[in-house]
Batch of 2 targets.
Target 1
Amino acid sequence: QVALVESGGGLVQAGGSLRLSCAASGRAFSTYHVGWFRQAPEEEREFVAAISPSAGSTVYADSVKGRFTISRDNGKRSVYLQMISLQPADPAVYYCPVPERRSFPLPSKKAQYDYWGQGTQVIVSS
């Protein structure tokens, strides 16, 4: 079992930056992948990025490549999403889910993730 708490969301101007954090508790943090997803109102929850246990592998959605960076600190049981050049398409509630199983390639489908937090909201003003 894994419990996840996202934080760091807020209001930012278009073109600005924000860093999201995800704190995990439960089973050994360094053994599982962690992803980031987002969901805007009236939209499906979509994949943003994922990172392997050792941080040796990462994968990103095309829409955020070059702007978002996923990282993790296993000692702090935390995963981060650094977001720069935020755009009007980026506002959403952001989630950091964890899959029950460790598989490769890194999972990018919502159904592949088993544990979800409550999310943190990102608002981008133009």
Note: The two ends are 40 Å apart (CA to CA).
Target 2
Amino acid sequence: QVQLVESGGGLVQAGGSLRLSCAASGRTFSSNAMGWFRQAPGKGREFVAGLSWIGSSTVYADSVKGRFTISRDNAKNTLYLQMNSLKPEDTAVYYCAAQGLSLLTASISPKSYNYWGQGTQVTVSS
């Protein structure tokens, strides 16, 4: 059974940092694009960052570009999201996701992702 488990969320003041982790089990995703999405109350799921199967290829939402960094450790089958200079508008539940097909670039559409974690809450206070 494939599982993605996020951790690292919490409450932080504006300007602070958090590092989210997403541990995968049940299969390896070293050849699959992975991404982070978020969902704020009353809003739809929003793309945050994506990492193609070639680890050097990344894509970010304009709202987080320059503040967030996505990375992966294939040996640990783990995806990360380093979030710096956090703003209150970054408050949301953050989800990691993996595309089912291999050797693709990261998509910004949630429909392209087959596996999802349960989410971790990030709250940024002003």
Note: The radius of gyration is 13 Å.
